[in-house]
Amino acid sequence: MTSILDLPLATMNDGTTTLRELGGSRWLVVNVASACGATPQYAGLQALHEAHDDLTVVGFPCNQFGAQEPGTHAEICDFTASKFNVTFPLMAKVEVNGDGQTPLFSALCDVADADGYSGPVRWNFEKFLIDANGTAARYSTRVAPEQLPV
After folding, report:
1. What digits encode the pLDDT tens for the residues 30-87?
2. Is 123 helix (H, G, I), strand (E, B) or coil?
3. In this structure, what CATH number is given to the domain that contains residue 56?
4. Which one of the listed residues 36, 62, 77, 109 is annotated catalytic?
């Protein structure tokens, strides 16, 4: 079985990469959106990315929740850079649930959070902290980046 760290990820530049290729020894995978009540979490995600040399925050824009990420790749990058100074990697827009679900989120949806919930991603800014062995921990939208055990 392929490690979660080696699953192909589509980049905004029509290429592919993997979590492992992005660098670091821990990854914080987050489904993000630009027009969500939780969008200010971008600031906390950027702060984590800057504060931990071994942690790579990876954003996955998704428009499946309230159509809160309708922008193009360029619009998403412009918004996140101008409003939150985001420098962490943003991947191509994905589906985190349903028939078009990416393989990464298919694997991550099997992970239970602290309340025992596993299954479809519930909302924007759900977070998955993945270690160098590919083991993931899941955190709901309500858990701010500053509250994560990094």
Report:
1. 999 999 999 999 999 999 999 999 999 999 999 999 999 999 999 999 999 999 999 9
2. coil
3. 3.40.30.10
4. 36
